[in-house]
């Protein structure tokens, strides 16, 4: 039985797609935590990030394919979150 480093490695069809999903999901989880810590409603979060409430609903519901990395990094910067990308050789 093959073991995977992450769920994305198991379900995505290419290593490139798996890496993109890992980055997006990590950013989304950080933003979800930020919204929860701040006690923001979806409407308040939408106003804070300059997006629509349905976009925040997509974020909260983990709809990873709804976002590109650029949009998530912009939202993280708005939240005052610093993004570090770690690059290493594949195993």
UniProtKB/TrEMBL annotation:
Domain HTH cro/C1-type: 30-88
Gene Ontology MF, one: DNA binding
Pfam families: HTH_37
Highest taxon of the lineage: Bacteria
UniProt cross-references to InterPro entries, sorted A to Z: Cro/C1-type_HTH (IPR001387), HigA2-like_HTH (IPR039554), Lambda_DNA-bd_dom_sf (IPR010982)
Official protein name in the record: Putative conserved small protein
Organism of provenance: Thiorhodovibrio frisius
């Amino acid at each position: 039985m093959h073991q995977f480093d992450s769920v994305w490695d198991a379900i995505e069809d290419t290593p490139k797609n798996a890496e993109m999903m890992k980055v997006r999901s990590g950013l989304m989880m950080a933003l979800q935590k930020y919204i929860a810590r701040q006690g923001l409603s979806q409407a308040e979060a939408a106003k804070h990030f300059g997006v629509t409430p349905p976009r925040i609903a997509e974020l909260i519901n983990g709809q990873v394919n709804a976002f590109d990395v650029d949009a998530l990094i912009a939202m993280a910067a708005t939240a005052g979150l610093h993004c570090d990308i770690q690059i290493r050789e594949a195993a």
